[in-house]
Design a protein that fits this description.
With 116 residues, the protein is mainly β. It is 3% helix and 45% strand. It is built from one helix and ten strands; from the N terminus they run E-E-E-H-E-E-E-E-E-E-E. It has a seven-stranded mixed β-sheet with strand order 6-7-8-9-4-3-10, with no helix packed on it. It has a three-stranded antiparallel β-sheet with strand order 1-2-5, with no helix packed on it. Strand 6 (56-59) and strand 7 form a beta hairpin. The N and C termini lie far apart (31 Å). It binds zinc ion. Zinc ion is lined by residues 8-10, 12-13, 71, 73-74, 76.
Amino acid sequence: MQTHTGGCQCGKVRYEMTGEIGDVLACNCSRCGKLGTLLTFVPAENFKLLSGEDATTEYTFNKGVIHHRFCATCGVESFANGKAPNGAEMIAVNVRCLDDVDIESLNVKKFDGKSY
Ligand SMILES: [Zn+2]
């Protein structure tokens, strides 16, 4: 499995994730639709926050099941966490915030988050 590193714009939030980045999701919900977030999902155990635990501000909306963690300094939301329908802790990584990923090479799938 591959390890990718990423984080926010100013560098306070840094993390690494392990896993293949397959298709990424472009969600049309009231938040992602505005931000243009492209998402991949990994189990929480495949994600390690290297720095920035205290640097993020959390935002929740709708049913409040996803914790949107954006950097309080630069405002970039590089990841979010929440539970999958089966109860597993998952991390939604904004692949736009990964260091070594060629965004243009990714297969983008549309996700109808607006309907949830
Ligand atoms: Zn930042």
